[in-house]
Amino acid sequence: MKIISALLCLLSLSISASECNISPNVISAYYQLSTQAANSKRITKPVQQLFELHRNNNTVLQRNVSAGINDIWLLNGNRLSLNRAFEKYQHTIEYQPNELRHQPQWQDAFQLVMTPELSQMQLVEQNKAGCLLEQHFVLKDKHREYQLTWLPKLQLVKFFQVKDAELTRRWQLTKFQPNAEKTVSLLKQYRNYQSTDYADIGDNEGIPFLATMINQGFSMPVHNRPALVDKPHQH
Question: How far apart are CA 88 and CA 143, in angstroms?
Answer without folding.
Answer: 38
